[in-house]
Amino acid sequence: MNFLSHFYFERDNHDPNMVIGVVLPDFVKNAQKDSNLYPLKEKHLFESVANENSILKGWGRHIAVDAVFHSSEFFKSNTTSLKQIILPVLENSPVKPFFLAHIGLELVLDHLLTIHGTVNINTFYEQLSGADTKALDSFLKKSGVADTTIFFKFLNSFISSRYLFSYQKIENISYALNRICMRLWDSPFTEPQLVLLTEKLSIFKTNLEENYMSIFNNIELHLNSGNH
So which domain of life are we looking at (predicted)? Predict the structure, then answer.
């Protein structure tokens, strides 16, 4: 799941350190894609500092949510469906259909949460800004990030750009997908392909809109019952 979908489960959480922990695995990957951190294997390193422990709890929630999401029938059926819809876009493109369908589904879910006002983007940014920077720095260093400069550069830019507000327009979802694909492939899409991608995502979004909340309700049940 993407940033706002993860935030959905913390929308009433007033602990900014836990909220940043929930998106931290993705933030770390965005900042330094070769980083592989496993703080849950070293819980004892964080438990004595309250704010670091909150970040760790958030990290655990992220892992739990992704595990339920990726093993769900919702994920399987909708990635299959989106893959079929976007195939015409991928003619002469190096991008792998499953990769685009997987990320596309996650971004369309974020888009739906924003246009229906299910999450408040301002609140999300406020929570990120309210997190304890020293605790975050210490958490990352204990997890194995020797130099946190690149991470904080990414985080500050992410917060100041207010980039997630762009998710309110479906054409910006195509733009975001293109940016993600550019990390893996040199020229993922031509301009006409991006226009076509927006058309296909609009069709998919309309199909998904009727029951997109079912996956959030399903995951929430899992989290509340402690099945993680």
Answer: Bacteria
Q: Are 73 and 146 in contact (CB under 8 A)?
A: no
pLDDT digits (tens, 9 = 90+) for 158-187: 999 999 999 999 999 999 999 999 989 999
pTM for the whole structure? 0.94
In angstroms, the CA 141 to CA 136 distance is 9
Torsions phi, psi for 147 (to 5 deg)? -120, 115
| Residue 183 burial class via C-beta count within 10 angstroms: exposed 0-12, middle 13-18, buried 19 and up | exposed
- Residues 6 or more apart whose CB falls under 8 angstroms from that of 171 comprise 198
Rounded to the nearest 10 degrees, the angle between the axes of helix 73-86 and helix 50-70 is 70
Burial readout 144-169 (b: 16 or more C-beta within 10 A, e: otherwise): ebeebeebeeebeebeeeebbeebee
Q: Are 103 and 156 in contact (CB under 8 A)?
A: no
The answer to whether 167 and 115 are in contact (CB under 8 A) is no
Indicate the Cα dihedral angle 95, 99, 101, 103, nearest 10°. -110
